[in-house]
């Protein structure tokens, strides 16, 4: 038992393990760099770095096989190797303070990347000049929104995550008088009018605009400048039976209406929303160019920020103007708003909204590593200079 424990310690504290893990990491980064040309940044993150293993799918079966360790496995083993070697081999002394500090910074850097991959959320907020929003939208995730509009003073919203629709299970929410059943779900799709595809099979949809539209599955895209547009055929089943089947997609824009049990509902498949306790109004978007050219000089958004109360109305606690421009984001309520783009002839701003509770960890880690290196090299330098000064010259 003791020999087994010693072998376990020697394995995880071995320098050979460190070299092998670093070599595998280099191969992973090189492979991911080549793959980025086809699948983009998002695809590389999901398929290479934020996964235990890189998967290969058997052709025509869709069965995944792990073929290479992913970022979680390599990063986790490197973290264990570093911590184990640190506590097993090194003893704290002032002469090694710089090395200890550098190692601690590296451990913090690896932990920061792990927490970022787990906790970070990214959304977008598109605002036309004069428009006000209290929510941002996901760039990749979607949701089925069922809005009860019966009360003219307030809407009751039931949002069903995309993964539940894709699973195909029957969904029953206490706030709804009917059940939701997914008849078909396409993670990415192409919509065409039926007049454009006269030979298309009959649509599963029986209500709304679905019977006039053909939804065709499309391959998933992971490119940064493209997004998947899902489509879902959803059947509503009430106490008296089926109410019909609707085709839903973010491309349809306007919601579709359902009347049942004396209540009015709007159905839509939309980009997932993240509501906030404050609202932003775009006052002015500026796209500055260098004089006499079309070369962009600066993008900036002047906005009005107002905090909201429980009723969704401004509560007066925070009401001010803010300016967001390149390299000058807005940090508010745990969120960071970056100037990401523009649209509609410079009348629409696109803000990237990031929630990352561990955003400060990489900065602290880099400071600790730099400080540790300065201390360690400084101690060696002072020791070398002191020896040179105390050395006596040789008399010939």
Note down, in words, how this protein is organized.
The chain has 3 domains: 2-120 and 360-390, no CATH class; 122-133 and 275-355, no CATH class; 140-273, no CATH class. 31% of the residues lie in helices and 39% in strands. It is built from 6 helices and 18 strands. The chain is globular, with a radius of gyration of 29 Å. The protein starts with a helix and ends in a 6-residue tail after the last helix. The mean pLDDT is 88.
Question: What can be said about this structure in brief?
Answer:
Helices cover 31% and strands 39% of the residues. It has 396 residues and is of the alpha+beta class. Strands 3, 4, 5, 12, 13, 14, 15, 16, 17 and 18 form a ten-stranded antiparallel beta sheet that branches. A four-stranded antiparallel beta sheet has the order 6-7-10-11. Strands 1-2 form a two-stranded antiparallel sheet.
The rounded distance between the terminal residues' Cα atoms is 65 Å
**Secondary-structure element order, N to C:** HHEEHHEEEHEEEEEEEEEEEEEH
Number of domains: 3
By DSSP, the count of extended strands is 18
Global morphology: globular
Largest sheet: number of strands, sense, barrel closure = 10 strands, antiparallel
The quaternary organization reads as single chain
The proportion of residues in beta strands is: 35-45%
Mean pLDDT across residues: 88
Contiguous runs where pLDDT drops below 50 for at least 5 residues: none
Give the fraction of residues assigned to helices. 25-40%
Radius of gyration equals 29 Å
Structural class: alpha+beta
**Count of helix runs:** 6
């Amino acid at each position: 038992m003791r020999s087994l424990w010693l072998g376990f310690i020697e394995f995880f504290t071995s320098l050979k393990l460190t070299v092998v893990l670093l070599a595998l990491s280099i191969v992973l980064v090189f492979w991911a760099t080549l793959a980025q040309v086809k699948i983009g940044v998002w695809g590389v993150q999901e398929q290479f770095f934020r996964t235990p293993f890189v998967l290969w799918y058997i052709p025509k079966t869709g069965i995944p096989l792990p073929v290479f360790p992913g970022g979680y496995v390599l990063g986790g083993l490197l973290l264990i190797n570093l911590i184990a070697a640190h506590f097993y081999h090194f003893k704290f002394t002032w002469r090694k303070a710089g090395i200890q500090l550098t190692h601690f910074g590296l451990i913090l850097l690896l932990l920061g990347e792990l927490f970022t991959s787990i906790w970070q959320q990214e959304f977008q907020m598109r605002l036309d000049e004069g428009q006000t929003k209290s929510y941002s939208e996901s760039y990749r995730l979607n949701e089925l929104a069922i809005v009860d509009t019966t009360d003219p003073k307030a809407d009751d919203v039931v949002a069903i995550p995309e993964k539940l629709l894709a699973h195909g299970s029957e969904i029953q929410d206490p706030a709804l008088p009917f059940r939701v059943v997914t008849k078909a779900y396409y993670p990415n799709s192409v919509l065409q009018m039926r007049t454009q595809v006269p030979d298309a099979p009959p649509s599963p949809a029986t209500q709304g605009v679905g019977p006039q539209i053909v939804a065709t599955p499309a391959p998933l895209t992971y490119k940064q400048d493209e997004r998947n547009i899902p489509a879902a055929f959803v059947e509503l089943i009430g106490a008296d039976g089926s109410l019909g089947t609707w085709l839903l997609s973010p491309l349809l824009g306007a919601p579709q209406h359902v009347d049942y049990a004396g209540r009015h509902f709007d159905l839509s498949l939309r980009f997932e929303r993240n509501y906030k306790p404050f609202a932003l109004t775009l006052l002015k978007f500026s796209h500055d160019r260098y004089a006499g050219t079309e070369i962009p000089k600066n993008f900036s958004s002047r906005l009005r920020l107002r905090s909201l109360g429980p009723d969704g109305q401004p509560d007066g606690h925070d009401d001010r103007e803010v300016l967001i421009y390149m390299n000058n984001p807005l940090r508010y309520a745990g969120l960071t708003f970056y100037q990401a783009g523009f649209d509609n002839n410079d009348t629409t701003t696109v803000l990237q909204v990031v929630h990352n509770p561990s955003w400060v960890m990489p900065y602290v880690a880099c400071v600790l590593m730099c400080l540790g290196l300065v201390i360690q090299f400084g101690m060696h330098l002072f020791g070398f200079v002191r020896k040179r000064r105390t050395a006596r010259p040789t008399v010939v």
